[in-house]
Amino acid sequence: SVSVAFREHLRRLGLQDFPCGLGSWNKSRFDAHRSHRRGRPGADQAGQEETMPLDEETPEALMELLRDQHSPWALPPDCSPHDQHLQETAVLAPKLVRGSNIFQLFRSLRIIDKGVEEVDEGLLQLHQLEELILSTNKISRINSANLPRTLKQVLELCCNALADLQDLCASPPPELQHLGLGYNRLCSPSQDKYLTATFWPNLVSLDLSFNNFTDLMGLVSQLSSLQKLRILVLQGNPLALIPTYRGFLVDSLPKLSILDDICIGPDERHQFHGLARQPELIRNEARVVVSIGEIKGVPDPSVQLEVGSKAPVITYSYCVAYEF
């Protein structure tokens, strides 16, 4: 479950271990008795703070251990800037990352390629979560009741096994701006109805790439309700092979700024103007032409036997198969 992966993520960050957390390496900075003595009049007649014990480290030294890429305590390269910030917080204010306090610090959570199959209710502890990235896992269904309502920036589910959005759309995060569903198993027409403003009123960016959407007109009729949509990715779907695919989308969704990672300019808008009112030009079929440039290792069929030759004739047959 995602809760198990989250706990493993916290363990990997080592927020309670050296050089983070509370311990012999920094205890005097957070000792209430010593802090009280430092604040007493006359405790330090020279007007200077007490020197740090020899067996402790300065905050600067501890932070350097985290930031130096050659340090054994440095985070792996795949960790996010938010993970770095959590570790630094654990050095400067370790009490903020103790117990349930840690849940209040997570605004972004990345759990990538950890074999997660279930998004359970454990995520609801993250009351400040705005961005959730669960790419390259094994998630086939998501119950929206287990997603924090605070999600408003990103919900990225790329490279999973999603085939049905019904549970996700039961009560989705209302403020979400980006929904990433690329490289899943979604198809037309059963899933088109879940891609509307009824479920995603504030969606600005939508990634549906490399699924199995085939009904271009049906999908566009649903996407047209997303009034805030500016970025759309549909490449890799069968409908992207339709000859008038791009032009029909550009004209049908006039507020779109980027389609398949390519900006839509005024010239392109003008070029395809009126295409949306000509559905008869949309044909749900595609033609694929395969050319064989060269074949090696087989006899040359152009070599002919002489007329009247009594040499035996050998016939060769070959089968070439293509899988799409």
Topology record:
Layout lengths: L1 H12 L18 H8 L19 H9 L13 H12 L15 E3 L20 E3 L20 E3 L21 E3 L24 E3 L8 H8 L7 E3 L11 H8 L5 E2 L2 E2 L2 H6 L53
Parallel strand pairs: 1-2, 2-3, 3-4, 4-5, 5-6, 6-7
Antiparallel strand pairs: 7-8
Helix pairs in contact: 3-4
What is this structure, in a nutshell?
This protein is α/β, with parallel strands linked by helices. The protein is built from seven helices and eight strands; from the N terminus they run H-H-H-H-E-E-E-E-E-H-E-H-E-E-H. Helix 6 links the parallel strand 6 and strand 7.
Describe the fold and architecture.
By secondary structure, this protein is α/β, with parallel strands linked by helices. It has 2 domains: 1-24 and 57-105, no CATH class; 106-289, Ribonuclease Inhibitor (Leucine-rich repeat, LRR (right-handed beta-alpha superhelix), Alpha-Beta Horseshoe). 19% of the residues lie in helices and 7% in strands. The protein has 7 helices and 8 strands. The chain has helices at 2-13, 32-39, 59-67, 81-92, 216-223, 245-252, 266-271; strands at residues 108-110, 131-133, 154-156, 178-180, 205-207, 231-233, 258-259, 262-263. Strands 1-2-3-4-5-6-7-8 form an 8-stranded mixed sheet, with helices on one face. Helix 3 (59-67) runs antiparallel to helix 4 (81-92). The two termini are 34 Å apart. This is LRC43 protein.
